[in-house]
Amino acid sequence: MAIASNAQTELGLVAEVTLGTTPAIPALLQQPFSSFSLNPSTAELTDTRKTGSRELSAVVVGNRTFSGTLAGPLSYGNYDSLLEAALFNTWATNVLKVGDTVKSFSVEVAQADIANYLLYKGVVVNGFTIDSPAEGLTNVSFDLLALDMTSNASSADASGYTAATVNDAFKSCGGTVSEGGVAIAYVNSVNLTLANNISPLNFWGDCASGDYSIGNADITGELSLFFANDAVLEKYLSGAYSSLSFTLEDGAGNALQFFLPRIKYSGASLDVAERIVTGK
Prior knowledge:
By secondary structure, the chain is mostly beta strands. 6% of the residues lie in helices and 51% in strands.
């Protein structure tokens, strides 16, 4: 029996017009990734009827859900559609803001070496985490949910995936950070997390989820600085509002900026030994 090789795993996605329905002739776009999972979880329903024995009568499989992540180094343009889905909006003149339009995908995991293709339907982005250290690549992890999955012997895209143009990953070198409108040059790391608080909805008569309940967009993060002054610490203590922006740039000059116009620090820590102050 042939064993699947993870080096030959390929990922393709296509936008859905109707939630949970793959387009009739899907043109799947290849999606670069470092790791991917959309794991199934089923409810175990215990039959409590007495049969004269201390053993359980039966355990019945109930509703199923799918959740997981897609992660990899963040690069210019390679995750634009997932960022749109995470922010519930569409890029307009190179700007993407938080909106309220649900965007879903059909996502296929292709294992051509064993002729196995897992097609996930109704895939939505429940949030993301971006981690940008002073040393190393900037990484992103998208939290995903799916309504259902089918296993097939051939790809949903008979023509083959459209190849992605893979740009160089972002690193902090050449990037900029501004806090309160003032550029700061002693940043240790920046972390940004978006949580959409999406929950699957189960409908009577179907074991697969049928829709989603959409929650608020919660944006949190951490800014870690080498200790040059107590400006951030004072903002936390006073409860003052501030702003934060950070720009990532690759070697070709492609840039991606994140701008949070109104933030408040909910915590702070000062590591005297390491001379680092962290605002949350």
